[in-house]
Design brief:
The protein is an alpha+beta fold. 28% of the residues lie in helices and 28% in strands. It is globular, with a radius of gyration of 20 Å. The structure holds pyridoxal-5'-phosphate (PLP).
Length: 313
């Protein structure tokens, strides 16, 4: 089956979905996007879209920041997305990328007096970081953008230049990922992930005021830690040196899942191996996203039930 896109209000083969070279968002980073995972459950022959509603709620907020008019309700966005994935017929993990953007063919930096458009594409995405063996990180020489510059609470395309600078610097220095500090020198997040440390019997993660993207995986892990392991999460600023002294550390993100951090700036975290709490959270999380834990099934949208329902009606 050819990959499909939802573009200009209709489903079409991805190869036919094209934009003009004068598109405003291409020149000025004036777009807002999401990354949603579809997780394949081989035993059930089912693909589950994880917390899709929350992703679209966050996208709607980002669109408000950029004065982009999103012409669909959250329910409509969820239903279009499910149909797109179903049409594409994937039987493996997928990554869905909705993107709302300033579509005018116009030169001139601004947010007002421009047209908006929206598309969704679906693709496969191999493991982003090594969830089994963990990752080695450096503290980036780049600082995380501040809310006074570009609001990091929105998944705004222009912001990702900041992430790309940090990621490439880290990779070129031989690390897997970068950890960005904010303007005050507090830990903010990875280039595309939130960060947690385990200190004694608590989880600690930076608050929204430290310029993080409020991650949906972050929220998932906070809830799983509390409900399933009895571990509370404290949201507070973290100093760089606290990272070095943490018992465990890990990243969370739709692309990165729960990825153990084994080393920061060449210093081993804890005993330098995947931590016990990290491992437990990771196992819980993987079961939940694949629709294997009935308690959290409300977070999972099955793609292929729709096919069955359609055939029956
Ligand atoms: C900068 C940044 N921080 C954190 C995250 C994690 O957010 P989520 O768990 O919603 O994917 C992402 C990924 O979307 C990101 O790009």
């Amino acid at each position: 089956m050819p990959p499909y896109a939802f573009f200009q209000k209709q489903f079409m083969p991805l190869a036919e979905a094209k934009i003009g070279i004068l598109t405003h968002a291409l020149h000025y980073g004036t777009a807002c996007f999401e990354g949603i995972r579809g997780n394949w459950n081989a035993e059930q022959g089912q693909l589950y879209l994880f917390r899709m509603k929350e992703h679209y709620e966050r996208m709607r907020q980002g669109c408000r920041l950029l004065k982009i008019d999103l012409p669909y309700s959250i329910e409509e966005l969820c239903s279009i997305t499910t149909e797109l994935v179903e049409k594409s017929g994937y039987r493996e993990d997928v990554y869905i990328r909705p993107l709302a953007y300033k579509s005018s063919q116009a030169v001139g930096v601004r947010l007002h007096d421009l047209e908006d458009d929206f598309f969704i594409i679906v693709t496969t995405l191999p493991a982003y970081l090594d969830t089994d063996n963990g990752v080695r990180c450096c503290t980036s020489s780049w600082r995380r953008v501040d809310d006074t510059m570009i609001p990091p609470r929105g998944k705004i395309t222009g912001i990702y230049v900041n992430s790309a600078l940090a990621k490439t610097e880290a990779n070129e220095l031989g690390f897997d990922e970068a950890i960005l500090l904010n303007q005050d020198g507090h830990v903010s997040e990875g280039s595309g992930e939130n960060i947690f440390i385990v200190s004694g019997n608590t989880l600690v993660t930076p608050p929204s005021s430290d310029n993080i993207l409020l991650g949906i995986t972050r929220d998932t892990v906070i809830q799983l830690a509390r409900n399933e392991l009895g571990i509370e999460t404290v949201e507070r600023s973290i100093d760089r040196s606290e990272l070095y002294l943490a018992d465990e550390a890990f990243f969370t993100g739709t692309a990165a899942h729960v990825s153990p951090i084994l080393e920061i700036d060449h210093r081993p975290i804890g005993n330098g191996k995947v931590g016990k709490v990290t491992k437990k959270l990771q196992q819980l999380y993987f079961d939940v996203i694949r629709g294997k834990n009935p308690k959290y099934f409300h977070w999972c949208t099955p793609v292929y039930t729709k096919v069955v329902e359609k055939k029956l009606s």
